[in-house]
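Input.
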Amino acid sequence: MILRIMAAATSIAAVILLLNSRQSKVLFGTDMDARYTYSPAFKFFMFMNVVACALSVLSLLPVVTLGRKFSNSINYFYLFLHDLMLAILLAGSSGAATTFAQVGKYGNSHAGWMPICESFGKFCHKAFSSLVLGYIAVFCYVLLVVISANKARQIPV
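Output.
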């Protein structure tokens, strides 16, 4: 249960950091903004972390009831599917956001994209910190998948 709370906390912390990562600057006489909303990958990352946090909090009730001696052991299988789905979706959103962050930091000379982290350091630092928290949440969910799979394996067939 503590691992599930930790996964929810890191997910919501990643969302809060990403929501506060906006930075504005005047470059070449033009106002420029760096926001997470400009990237579909960052929007997907934020949305999946919100969903993961909400579902983690909602899954605490079944986890508490599964801890009782008279609970049905087939419910562990459903918890396994729940944790697996969240782990996969969080891993996919983290990978997509990491790809976008890599382009933001290093650019892409073949496509003509310039790196923006030299100009928008505060934005990039917060986005990077959000990604680190997102990957911690993915790790927590992978551990939850292993734990729930082990419990589901003990179901008599």
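The mean pLDDT is 84.
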